[in-house]
Design brief:
By secondary structure, the protein is low in regular secondary structure. The chain has no helices and no strands. It is extended. The two termini are 35 Å apart.
Protein backbone atom coordinates (compact mmCIF):
# COMPACT_ATOMS: atom_id res chain seq x y z
CA UNK A 1 0.00 0.00 0.00
CA UNK A 2 1.45 3.35 -1.00
CA UNK A 3 0.55 6.63 0.68
CA UNK A 4 1.16 10.09 -0.69
CA UNK A 5 1.05 12.86 1.91
CA UNK A 6 1.07 16.54 1.00
CA UNK A 7 1.69 18.87 3.93
CA UNK A 8 2.30 22.50 4.62
CA UNK A 9 3.73 23.06 8.10
CA UNK A 10 4.63 26.49 9.46
CA UNK A 11 6.60 26.62 12.70
CA UNK A 12 7.19 30.00 14.27
CA UNK A 13 9.10 28.83 17.36
CA UNK A 14 10.43 25.37 18.17
CA UNK A 15 11.90 24.98 21.65
CA UNK A 16 13.57 21.73 22.66
CA UNK A 17 14.26 21.50 26.39
CA UNK A 18 16.76 18.66 26.29
CA UNK A 19 18.13 16.00 23.99
CA UNK A 20 19.09 12.53 25.21
CA UNK A 21 20.59 9.51 23.49
CA UNK A 22 17.26 8.30 22.12
CA UNK A 23 15.44 11.55 21.44
CA UNK A 24 13.31 11.94 18.32
CA UNK A 25 11.84 15.16 17.00
CA UNK A 26 9.26 14.52 14.30
CA UNK A 27 7.50 17.21 12.36
CA UNK A 28 5.01 15.93 9.83
CA UNK A 29 4.83 12.36 8.59
CA UNK A 30 7.63 9.89 8.25
CA UNK A 31 7.59 6.51 6.59
CA UNK A 32 10.95 5.50 8.05
CA UNK A 33 12.83 6.86 11.05
CA UNK A 34 16.49 5.86 10.92
CA UNK A 35 18.68 5.97 14.00
CA UNK A 36 21.63 8.33 14.00
CA UNK A 37 24.17 8.70 16.77
CA UNK A 38 27.12 11.06 16.81
CA UNK A 39 29.85 11.05 19.42
CA UNK A 40 32.18 14.03 19.51
CA UNK A 41 35.30 14.61 21.58
CA UNK A 42 34.84 18.36 21.96
CA UNK A 43 37.39 18.65 24.79
CA UNK A 44 40.23 16.94 22.87
CA UNK A 45 40.58 14.32 25.63
CA UNK A 46 43.19 11.62 25.02
CA UNK A 47 42.33 9.09 27.75
CA UNK A 48 39.21 7.90 29.62
CA UNK A 49 38.01 9.88 32.64
CA UNK A 50 38.59 8.62 36.16
CA UNK A 51 35.73 6.63 37.70
CA UNK A 52 33.07 8.84 39.30
CA UNK A 53 33.12 9.18 43.08
CA UNK A 54 30.24 10.42 45.26
CA UNK A 55 30.67 13.97 46.56
CA UNK A 56 29.81 12.87 50.09
CA UNK A 57 28.20 9.95 51.87
CA UNK A 58 27.39 6.71 50.12
CA UNK A 59 25.28 5.56 47.22
CA UNK A 60 22.58 2.93 47.68
CA UNK A 61 21.44 0.95 44.66
CA UNK A 62 18.27 -0.21 46.39
CA UNK A 63 18.80 -3.81 45.35
CA UNK A 64 18.37 -5.14 48.91
CA UNK A 65 14.96 -3.46 49.31
CA UNK A 66 13.60 -4.51 45.90
CA UNK A 67 10.92 -7.16 45.66
CA UNK A 68 12.01 -10.48 44.14
CA UNK A 69 11.42 -10.86 40.43
CA UNK A 70 8.75 -13.31 39.30
CA UNK A 71 9.41 -15.01 35.95
CA UNK A 72 6.74 -14.68 33.29
CA UNK A 73 4.96 -17.81 32.16
CA UNK A 74 3.71 -18.11 28.60
CA UNK A 75 0.77 -20.47 28.32
Amino acid sequence: MAWTVHQCININILRIGSVSNSSIVQIGSSGVIQAKSDLFNTGAFTEPAAPAQPAGGSISTGEAEAAPLVPLSLT
